[in-house]
Amino acid sequence: MNKSKKIKNRKTPISNNAKKSQSDTDTDTATKPGTTAFKMFKSQTSIYSIGFLLLCLFFFINSGSSIKFTKPLKTKLDYNYPPENMTNGSSKNLSALFFENGTQVPKVMYVPQVSQADKLDYQAINIITGRDIKDVDIKSGSLLSPLLVARPVGSEAHSKVNSFLSSKLKEYGMEVTYDNFTESTVVGKKEFSNIIATSKNLGSAGIGKRLVLCAHYDSKILKTGDFVGATDSSVPVAIILSAVQMLSEIGVDLSPNSVQVLFFDGEEAFKDWTSKDSLYGSRHLASKMDSLKDPSLSSLGYNITQLEMIDLFLLLDLIGASNPSFYNINPASSNPTTSSIQDNSYSLLAKIEADLYDLGFLKKKFLNPFNSFSPFGKIDDDHRPFAERNVPILHIISTPFPKVWHTLDDNAENLDQYTVNHFTLLIRAFVLAFLDIHI
Ligand SMILES: *[C@@H]1O[C@H](CO)[C@@H](O)[C@H](O)[C@H]1NC(C)=O
Ligand SMILES: *[C@@H]1O[C@H](CO)[C@@H](O)[C@H](O)[C@H]1NC(C)=O
Ligand SMILES: *[C@@H]1O[C@H](CO)[C@@H](O)[C@H](O)[C@H]1NC(C)=O
Ligand SMILES: *[C@@H]1O[C@H](CO)[C@@H](O)[C@H](O)[C@H]1NC(C)=O
Ligand SMILES: *[C@@H]1O[C@H](CO)[C@@H](O)[C@H](O)[C@H]1NC(C)=O
Ligand SMILES: *[C@@H]1O[C@H](CO)[C@@H](O)[C@H](O)[C@H]1NC(C)=O
Question: Which of 48, 91, 280, 406 could pair with 208 as two cysteines, CB 3.0-4.6 Å apart?
């Protein structure tokens, strides 16, 4: 039950004081558009200001309904396709995916650009998310409530959550498969089930960019009682479901790009965190994906592993407590392309957060915008088995960890609705930016 088991090589100890002063300085900043209106409402209760607000509300609702999200758009996206028109800035270079004369030509990875954020229609994103925010309500959200239960490996609740996640992903049009396996652990043999969901594409499946959204769905066993792990990782899982829900609602054809969801099992240690007692699911799946050819591509004659398909592995963890802070803690890579993908992805996420804040859609900024500064050293998590195989990582985990981390208080009562909404909006916008989807 010591924090050091999850944080390796931490340079600075995290004290409660450090946590407190950090969140105090990070969050209370200047006036935002949203709060100005609220203050005006509080101080001048004249009939005029109420009338004005109602008028604004009317226009806001009206502008929303004119975007007709209730009907799927079914847009065929305008990609640089067919492949001969692809450039390294837009997608993988197809000719680089072939095995020629028994030698693999290195593929060209997609390096996201921070300027992609400038093309997003934040107004539209905010309206979509605003409409669906009830799904991540901490008391009754249809995507979150079913996850706010103790669900240790092997329990009935764990199996119910597994079915819930699978059925939601299928409902959103994803192809769902499992990586089920039995492994000896420090407490005997256990059965695990990773969930893998991939967007369905026809023909050109996966030839373009592949964004992989990841979180773990098991919860830790605590001797003291039923540990829910609301931030660890019910909320991250719900945020990912919500992003996939958005893609299904806007009804966009992603091909030749694709989205994959990996919900890992057995992230938590059964006893104390060690390299063997932890990350059961991600270690198993990374090793498997490293040798499995991607089925959608092998039928087209491309010899490429499922791991090589991944342009970005976005891992969410420990999200949902109030006033968190985030740094670019992505693992260093000796491969310069991997490093730029990681750094650019972090910068893109921070830019989107800053833009949403400047436009008044977000009230706070939680991401430290600088790329090169992290006082918290390395954090061991489900990304490690993938990072070790040179998969580009974007690891979004609050540092310092939430105060409730690995205590019975990490439950629904201690979630912060604002923070949950904040990340739901932010991750939805990031998915759109990364895949160049314009609504
Ligand atoms: C691809 O390039 C060719 C020739 O350069 C051009 O005629 C064609 O319109 C391009 N296709 C797309 C989809 O951009
Ligand atoms: C694609 O890759 C091949 C071989 O790596 C290269 O010769 C070609 O110029 C590339 N095409 C584009 C559009 O980048
Ligand atoms: C990709 O494009 C950039 C400029 O847009 C260039 O500097 C870089 O060398 C290109 N990389 C490859 C692998 O072609
Ligand atoms: C194999 O190598 C030869 C000679 O370098 C080259 O001409 C050819 O295009 C390569 N590819 C295949 C599929 O044979
Ligand atoms: C894998 O395990 C899950 C959860 O127990 C189960 O629902 C699913 O049917 C299993 N799939 C396979 C292919 O065994
Ligand atoms: C595909 O790649 C593997 C190495 O990853 C190689 O052993 C195998 O021969 C290749 N298959 C074909 C058909 O090129």
Answer: 91
Considering only CA atoms, which residue is closest to atom 9 of ligand 1?
85
List the residue whose alpha carbon is closest to atom 11 of ligand 6: 303
Q: Using the mean position of ligand 1's atoms as its centre, give its distance from the Cα of residue 93 in Å.
A: 15
Cα(108) to ligand 2 centroid in Å equals: 9
Q: State the Cα–Cα distance between residues 257 and 259, nearest whole angstrom.
A: 7
Calpha distance 53→49 (Å, rounded): 6
Closest C-alpha among 353, 398, 122, 357 to residue 236 = 398
What's the pLDDT tens digit per position in 83-109?
Answer: 333 333 334 444 444 444 445 444 567
Q: Give the atom of ligand 3 at the shortest distance from the alpha carbon of 111.
A: 1
Residue 34: closest CA among 431, 437, 418: 418
Tell the residue number behind the tokens 């491969």, with chain if given: 335
CATH code that applies to domain 106-435: 3.40.630.10
Residue carrying the six token digits 């591509």: 297
Q: Which ligand is in closest contact with the Cα of 301?
A: 6
Pocket lined around ligand 2, Cβ cut-off 6 Å: 86-88, 93, 95-96, 105
Domain limits of the chain? 106-435
CA distance 2 to 199: 39
pLDDT digits 0-9 by tens, 151-167? 999 999 999 999 999 99
| 393-397 vs 210-216, strand pairing mode | unpaired
Residue 3 predicted with pLDDT over 50? no
> Is 305 within 8 Å of 292 (Cβ atoms)?
yes
